[in-house]
Design goal:
3 helices; mainly alpha; elongated; 79 residues; single chain; binds zinc ion
Length: 79
């Protein structure tokens, strides 16, 4: 799906959240860097990442809190 914002668009919130978590793992972002949450777009109706959210995405936050994000990032580094 193409959007005038030029951002990647995901058809559901769940898909966007999964992609958000994935990008944190693959790009090895510290918790406060990279996209922080997802939002529904007023132009295309799809879901995009935002880096300017006041509040971190709940699924992402839980992975950070439980140490899961760091574990996955480290596992990837040693591949
Ligand atoms: Zn859009």
């Amino acid at each position: 799906m193409k959007c005038q914002t030029g951002k990647n668009s995901y058809s559901t919130k769940s898909l966007a959240e999964t992609a958000l978590i994935d990008i944190h793992i693959h790009r090895n972002f510290p918790p406060d860097q990279g996209p922080q949450n997802v939002y529904q777009c007023e132009f295309c109706g799809g879901w995009h990442f935002t880096s300017k959210s006041q509040k971190r995405n709940v699924r992402l936050q839980e992975m950070i809190d439980f140490g899961e994000m760091r574990r996955l990032q480290q596992a990837r580094r040693w591949e």
